[in-house]
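Researcher: Re-running this chain for the archive, since the previous output was lost when a drive failed. Same request as before.
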Amino acid sequence: MLHRHLPIWPLAVAACLSPALPIDAFAAPLSRFCSPQMQNMAGTRLGAASNFAQGWNPRTLKAATRLGVTRFRDSLRWKDIERARGRYRFEGARNLYPDELARNGAHLTLTLNWGNPLYDGGETPHSAEALAAFGRFARAAVRRFPAIDTLEIGNEVNGANFVNGKVKTDGLPRRADYHLAMVRAASAAVKAERPDITVLGGATHSLPAGFLWPLLEKDRTGAIEGLALHPYTTPIDQLPAQFALLCQSPAVGTRSLTVTEFSSARPRQAPDDLVRTFTVLASLGATEVDWYPLNPRGDRQKPLIDQAGRITPTGDAFRFVGEHLAGQPVRRLPVDDFTFAAAFGTRAWVVWGVPRALHITAPGVRAFDAQGRPLPDDELTLAETRALVLLADQPQTRPPFALGCQTQIADSRLQFSYPSPHEGTPSKDLFRSLARIGGVDRPLSAMPGQERRGVPWTPYLSLAAHRGARIDGTSLRPAFGRKDGALVQSIAIAPNTELELDLELTPTSGALDVGLRLGAKELDAFTVTAPVHLKRRLHSETPARLEITVASASGLRPATADYRIRLSQPGRCPA
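Model: Regenerated structure tokens:
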């Protein structure tokens, strides 16, 4: 069966474009972090989180060299280097490994986090004396090792695993003050020695704007030059929306973005996760992204090299990205909400999305999978979690591919967004997320994440009076206390259109009461206690809204679930 093929720009504007129009004329401008009017012309560096300071292994460095790693993220143990006050002894392989990196032409992001028993009893530095000593140690490290060009102060400081003592027991509300004091102490000392050093702060697990906004508002001198983030809990397709929410605060300002850890625990999916995450973060203007880990750490995260020093499939993807994508100017290309495409320079493109055919339209262009293995050009089909990489022998003035027709028109995951507090929820949005309490509809507001105890560390939608109830791009929790309430997804339906609803609900706790309604007509009502995948044909003669209502079935006990709502138009692609 032959299908209509679409160029990669939206159909509505395609007819207005000349075939000879260069790529710059129609590609969506790519922003640097929080600066939509700018483009990421410098590209994004690719690094790896190593652990040479915790367990030096020359074989690991040799394997990393074969892999093409030129940027490392690692640490130095302050207590092992300053054993007497004011005396720094850089001895032994674990404290001298930055010299080996320099001999291999590599650079280092140095993470400084733990204390020293000489100061504050070894706790996370907080006294004036300990902070001054912490700054002097940072200065000694950058003076000794030219390979260091970036400092990351702290490590996941918004959690409980990498802080101790008073900094931990005083609680999260004061954590920003302690962290900022450490950043200021290190920055002042290091900049006096080497002004070229970039100082990163924030150092958070996940994307908790509720923690980061107050921190950055207090940093009026700009000691935090760049944000170091570990967005582990954000699905790849939710990264743009959550970073857009983070950027709603002017306090973020002109700071750069460095993702000093990202990873995958899925063995078969990890190479594609690496390519897709790098592509999204590069398109968002990240300065650098570092894969965790370089070598096995004893956790579930997939390393780049194995215990024997052999390159893993994830390592193959890392090397492929390093050779063809890292450091290249990058821009996201406008296709639709269901397809992600980005151009790296003029000779590389990465594409994935809902299933549809991809056709190469220029000679000398070849297709590869995430590991750099060639694919047959005549059987290319997109998938949501698989990256297709196109490489051209010669520079191209326009993307050298066209996309086939696809039937999807709505997706609660790929089209999820966080309304600006100044805008509210636009009345014409395809999806409306709201709460229905006692029969009264109330719009949900964007909550930044980790703004208080007991809430997610990533952004979500909720009500100020019922923060136990929440929804984000992948999960929902209809908790309204003693109130009779439900979360509602309302979707606009055009008249005289045959549609198919695809609803997935996977309870993670409790049971859910679910209702389906199209306009004034109730379609279904049922209780969900196990995963359900429902498909239903829909048709309305007039404009209407499809409502999917979800409530906790057990009254006061809140239920939670993962969800996804998709609408397709089966007749959209003619034979």
